[in-house]
Amino acid sequence: MNKPKVAFVCVHNSCRSQIAEALGKHLASDTYESYSAGTEAKPQINQDAVQLMNRLYGIDMEQSQHSKLLSEIPPVDIVITMGCNVKCPFLPCKYREDWGLNDPSGMDDTAFLETITLIRDKILNLRDRIQNGTL
C-alpha cells in the first residue's frame, strides 16, 4: 500500500508549514509522506523556527528543506492548511482540513514553542487517524 502524501500549506511556506513538514518526516514517516509549500516563497526558512527545531528535535530544517511553491511538490492526497488568516492556497486533494494556527513569526520563543507543540500534537493525531482508517 502506498503511503498517502500530505501537503502542509500556508502562504509563504517559511514557518508553520516548514515545521509541520519536518515533524511529519520525523514523527510519522512510517504512515505518510510530508511536503510543504505556499503560494509565495521566501528566501529562507524562519530562523527562529530553524533554531528551535534543531534544539528540540535535532532537526536541521535547512539541510533538507527550503521554501517551495505549490507547483514544486507532487500531487497529494491530503492538504493541511495552517490557518492563513487570508485566502488559503488551494491545492487539489482527496481530503482537506485547516489547523487554524497563528503565525509566531516576529514573536518570542514562547510563542514558537507553543506553535511547535500544537503542530507536533496535530501531526501525531493525523498519523493516528490515517493508521486507524478514520481518515
UniProtKB/TrEMBL annotation:
UniProt entry tagged with the keyword Metal-binding: no
Keywords associated with the record: Arsenical resistance
Keyword Phosphoprotein attributed: no
Domain Phosphotyrosine protein phosphatase I: 4-129
Database matches in Gene3D superfamilies: 3.40.50.2300
CDD domains (alphabetical): LMWP_ArsC
A UniProt-annotated Pfam family: LMWPc
Top-rank taxon, per record: Bacteria
Any one GO biological process: response to arsenic-containing substance
PANTHER family linked to this entry: ARSENATE REDUCTASE
Protein name: ArsC family transcriptional regulator
